[in-house]
Amino acid sequence: MSDSAVRRAIYTAIGVLILGMMLFPVYWMVNASLQPSGNTLTAGFLPLDPTFAGYRRALSEQGHNLVTSVLIAGGTVVLCLLISAPCAYALSQFRSRWVGIGLLAILVSQMIPGIVIANALYTAYERIGLLNSIPGLIVANCSSGIPFAILILRSFMLSLPPSLVEAARVDGAGLFRAFVAIVLPISRNSLITAGLFTFLFSWSDFLFALTLTTKGGVRPVTLGIYQYLGTQVQNWNAVMATAVLSAVPAIVLLVAAQKYIAAGAIGGAVK
């Protein structure tokens, strides 16, 4: 065996080992969710006697929280793209020194600790009645999703040939119609990338959910799992089943959109 083949075998073995270490918590979560009720933290490495009782209990007790998270994450994606797409296009087309200042402000906004934003929003929400509401959580999640989406979309829109929009304008299309009919379809990959990451940010949000909800009427699944731990310390199969169910939407979206993510991430680098 040649030296290059030996090196490839070693690198492959190291990669498999690292991958196994990274995926082991996910496997243990699934394994624990299939164990009989009781303290599943001491269960074996294989579910020799699997049961779906934990999933049935998780759906009955946490199903409404999953639906709440879907509504919040979906609303965040829609609102975020509606605002960030035209903003990104404007920042990619304007040729002014103020554009650099605006981009710097967007970057600075990403560095503000989430707890600072959450506390400020709590004070404002208490006055306008948005506490314990799905629209309130959507707006809160957009505060971190919109700057990120603008940066992703602008990097791609910088590579769009101006002649495409100019041709549409010559044919009689207005600015808005040219943007909707020309720019958005071409930017599909970057829109999917920005939307997916916005969904993941919103889906996994815990800080805003903990700060901006003081009642049990509106409770995302992340907060539901956190509060679930206090009452289910002897029934970890239900807790782990809830965690598995909460991971399914993110996994499905990542698998379905992986080719668009790769294209959208590198699209702005090629001009």
Name the features.
Carbohydrate ABC transporter permease; 271 residues; transmembrane; transmembrane helix; MetI-like_sf; BP-dep_ABC_trans_perm
Write the layout of secondary structure elements.
Layout: H1 3-33, H2 53-93, H3 97-111, H4 114-128, H5 134-157, H6 162-170, H7 175-186, H8 188-203, H9 207-212, H10 221-231, H11 236-256, H12 258-267
Helix pairs in contact: 1-11, 2-5, 2-8, 2-10, 2-11, 3-5, 4-5, 5-8, 6-7, 8-12, 10-11
Membrane topology: Multi-pass membrane protein
Keywords: Cell membrane, Membrane, Transmembrane, Transmembrane helix, Transport
InterPro entries: BP-dep_ABC_trans_perm, MetI-like, MetI-like_sf
Q: What would you say about this model in short?
A:
With 271 residues, this protein is mainly α. It has twelve helices and no strands.
Structural class: mainly alpha
User: What's the total helix number?
Assistant: 12
Query: What number is the mean pLDDT?
Result: 84
- Number of extended strands: 0
Beta-strand level of the residues, as a percent range? under 5%
| Main pleated-sheet profile | none
What string, H for helix and E for strand, traces the elements in order?
Answer: HHHHHHHHHHHH
Which segments are poorly predicted (pLDDT under 50) over 5 or more consecutive residues? 264-271
The residue fraction in helices comes out at over 70%
Could you say which overall geometry the principal axes of the C-alpha atoms support?
globular
Taking all Cα atoms into account, the compactness measure Rg is 23 Å
Report how far the terminal alpha carbons are from each other.
Answer: 43 Å
Keywords: Cell membrane, Membrane, Transmembrane, Transmembrane helix, Transport
Membrane topology: Multi-pass membrane protein
Domain ABC transmembrane type-1: 66-257
Transmembrane segments: 9-30, 66-91, 98-122, 134-153, 174-201, 236-257
